[in-house]
Amino acid sequence: xxxxxxxxxxxxxxxxxxxxxxxxxxxxxxxxxxxxxxxxxxxxxxxxxxxxxxxxxxxxxxxxxxxxxxxxxxxxxxxxxxxxxxxxxxxxxxxxxxxxxxxxxxxxxxxxxxxxxxxxxxxxxxxxxxxxxxxxxxxxxxxxxxxxxxxxxxxxxxxxxxxxxxxxxxxxxxxxxxxxxxxxxxxxxxxxxxxxxxx
Length: 199
Known about the structure:
By secondary structure, the protein is an all-alpha fold. It is built from eleven helices and no strands.
């Protein structure tokens, strides 16, 4: 596999086929090797991949991958965790707003009652740890449920902003729709994993 500097020197930039192959190879290696390893330090390093390597590096590998692929599912999990890590207070607020309207998803997500920033950070880490230490389909479904509760909270937050700041309300509404779409994609990826078809 070429390193990014070498690949950029090639005429025409990245070859899409090479990029797709690299995405699938790295995702499969991370998941299968991570699941085969029982060392908690290895799992902690895998969970903190974005912090160590940078979001840009992970994006270069996986962000263009289809949602119904292993690299696409991992990309969505890591981006969700990174959002929680960067703004846990907002995520906790949105979660608290959404939980009453989405109680089933709250149970699946497994977040503490009246969560604070530390609680949502712990859940984001636990979900991603589940990719390597538990059942991948369960981790994907937990992330999807978490996203659905956050989407509900964002929609309520948008309603509160409608009169004060309509453009912010519109951005929040689009963000909520994006979270729902991501949740649907993660749920589909979970069903593909169970059918042994998530590659």
